[in-house]
Amino acid sequence: MRVKLPSAFSPPGTATAPAVSVAPAAERPAWLGVVDRIGDFWIVGVLGLMVLIFGLLNTQLFTKGAWLSISNFSVEYLLLAVGQLFVILTGGIDLSDGAILGFTGMVSGAVMQSMLSSHAGDVLTTSVGFVVAMALGALIGFVNGFLITRLKLPPFIVTLGSLTAVGAAPSLINGGTEVSNLPPQIGNIGISAIGGWIYTTFLIAIVAAVVFGLFLHRTRFGLRTYAIGSNGLSARRAGINVDRHLVWVYTISGFLAGLAGMMVMANFSVANPLAGQNDELDAIAAVVIGGASLFGGRGHMLGTVVGTMIISLLVTGLVLVNVNGAWTEVATGVIIVAAVTVDQVRLRLAER
Amino acid sequence: MKIGRKKLPLGNKGWRYRTAAAGAAAMLAATALTTGATGAGTAASSATTRHAAKKYNIVLIPGLTTDPFYITMGVGAKAEAAKLGVNLIWKGATTWSVTLQTPIVNATLASHPDALLIAPTDAKALFNPIDAFVKSSIPVITVDTTLANQSILTGAISSDNIQGGEAAAKAIAAAAHYRGAVAVINVVKGVTTTDLRQQGFLQQMKKYPHMTVVATEYDNDNQTTAESQARALILAHKNLVGIFGTNLYSAAGAGKGVQAAGMKGRVFVAGYDAEPSEVKLLKQGVISILVVQNPAMEGKLGVQYAYDALTGHKNLIPKKEVLLPNIIATTQNANNPKISKYFYKTKL
Fold it and tell me: Chain B: residue nearest A319 by CA?
């Protein structure tokens, strides 16, 4: 049997379309209708169930403190996962977004530090910091996309290269040590919470998810993203400029990683050269748990948000129910495999 | 020390081996050195007479040159070298990497220094490059990290991680009046140094009948994870009075979590090392206690032992690995010059 690899391993546009099975219309048992109606959103139920279980084991989960802990943790992963979703929908993968997070944070931090030492205003410095991080993130994403489309290299290889190179770059900035001389506005963004319940950073991440969600599900750009992931060759034949589209998609991912870099910096009032390391794996996990297919063409924003919240819930939840810390990653791994398995079974049932 | 991409196992900043086998090997080596001392002694003394006017060149290769811990070690070594009238040459890679450190070690041999001080980035991979120095009769002393096989070394200096963990436990217990629950936020399972710190902490806590250790978490050196874990620990254990973060990011993350949960001053966070950002958190009271290593003393002793070896006073060098005690800094004493002089430097 021929094993089909996700198209992230092959140059863009050359991946074959997943086999479309023609479902025979007759003899469909009634209960399958329920499966259909649950549709892609069964994962919301899984999150609800997890909240219920953790909450029953320790009611502290239903406190404001637990919510703040979970939502605060989710910020960087949410931003990365939103960008990652676009990339994965096209059948690609972005292994470099965690590294971009760390690097853009350090560069932006160093720029802000030197601006402060030359007596620039706090607000101006903060604004420049944001622009630098997001522009640099977008630029690295653009380079990723450019290499993937123009040199016809597999996304896996290109972003693995960026992960290594960009990941090592923070040690070249500020002597590889933390930048802590930042404008007070940065720290204020990190600790301010609207009504004491919604951190500003979390609000920014949620707004980004909603905006990019609408962009994905309500615009031609989004439709084309799905089209390319479903069948790159057909999309090309249909007249879509696949290369240009892919460059945009990786640029979005890099841009959001830059924004995530600012959010992490705001949380700790410090630019940390190790920030974001291994975050790409959690972002990919969140997207996959949220029902996206690594083969491209399938997935949605709500699922990605829920997937991120599941990962975030695990960190706080497992401590609350007093499970040894070493189990957090075991649990995440099990949930990834379980989510994909259930999803596959559901799809097969839907095809019947 | 940061434990990060490609940088994994570290020290005090590296792996530490304190096995019985290593100890036995060191003993054997000591015997070998005494029996072979006559030949080496004559060679050394003749060298001294020939180059009476020449200054000794001692090279210090840190684990990485950008880390305040190693920079502080370099400062200590330089000061001692000036005192003894020897040259100290500082060189190394900017990141923690066996691949980058090895060629630097090899190139150093080509320049024929009189002695080598080194923090090996791998306890085994650096054995051959270091052994090449020993074979050319250049004494080698390890600082911070060391080799798995210490038999070829003239000396080894590091800091005592078990004592560091114990000191953190004592400081938290005293701050909390010896009552309440504590937790550890460690980095990754299986890193020798941080595991020893945790071991020291746990065994000291057992001595306090009214204190319990309620959890041990691992944050993978991710500050955001440490923060969430600290917040969850506070929710899960109403009587929590302290968290021990075994390295920079574990402690900084825990401190932020405690602060965000509004428990600053009620839950005491103990951390390790004294990098500038940590000292800032210590002064703000976000971290209450820092276990500060003494890298300057490691550098100073390293130069001293190298000088002893070169001037025929090998008998003054301890045969066993020297483990230096740590210093405890608190929010209260952070501005006391007797304590703050131990905070790590960022400039050589």
Answer: B232
**Residue B142 forms beta bridges with which residues?**
B118, B156
Looking up tokens 């969140």 gives A286
Alpha helical stretches, state H, chain B: 20-35, 37-50, 68-84, 98-110, 127-135, 161-175, 192-205, 223-236, 248-260, 276-284, 295-310, 337-340
Burial class (CB in 10 A: 0-12, 13-18, 19+), A24: exposed
Interface residue A278 vs chain B (CB under 8 A) = yes
- Looking only at the bridges linking them, the beta strands covering B140-143 and B155-159 are parallel
| Nearest-CB residue to B5 (from A72, A73, A167) | A167
Question: In chain B, whose CA is at the least distance from the CA of A75?
Answer: B224
State the Cα–Cα distance between residues B61 and B42, nearest whole angstrom.
28
Residues of A in contact with B4 (CB under 8 A): 273-274, 277
Distance in Å, alpha carbon of A27 to nearest chain B alpha carbon: 50
pLDDT by residue for chain B (348 residues), tens digit each? 444 333 334 445 543 333 333 334 444 444 444 444 334 444 444 444 444 456 899 999 999 888 899 999 999 999 999 999 999 999 998 878 888 899 999 999 999 999 999 999 888 899 999 999 999 999 999 999 889 888 999 999 999 999 999 999 999 999 999 999 999 999 888 777 889 999 999 999 999 999 999 999 999 889 999 999 999 999 999 999 999 999 989 999 999 999 999 999 899 999 999 998 899 999 999 999 999 999 999 999 999 999 999 998 888 899 888 999 999 999 999 999 999 999 999 888
Residues of A in contact with B224 (CB under 8 A): 73, 76, 264, 267
Question: Do B85 and B54 meet the contact criterion of CB atoms below 8 Å apart?
Answer: no
Q: Kindly state the helix (H) or strand (E) to which residue B289 belongs, with its residue range.
A: strand B289-292
CB-CB: which of B6, B218, B231 is closest to A65?
A: B231
Considering the domain A42-344 in this protein, what is its CATH number?
A: 1.10.3470
- Asked if A63 reaches chain B (Cβ–Cβ under 8 Å), the answer is yes
Structural domains in chain B, sorted by start? 20-160+295-324 (3.40.50.2300), 161-292 (3.40.50.2300)
B interface with A, Cβ–Cβ below 8 Å: 2, 4-6, 64, 66-68, 94-95, 186, 189, 214-225, 227-229, 231-236, 249, 252-253, 256-257, 260-261, 275-277, 280, 346
Per the listing, tokens 């460690």 go with B186
Q: How far is CA A191 from CA A187, A201, A298, B262, B281, in A?
A: 6, 9, 36, 12, 16
Neighbouring C-beta atoms of residue A106, cutoff 10 Å: 28
ipTM entry: 0.84
Q: A166 touching B, CB under 8 A? A: no
CA distance B169 to chain A (A): 20
Which of B5, B64, B222 faces A168 most closely, judged by CB atoms? Answer: B5
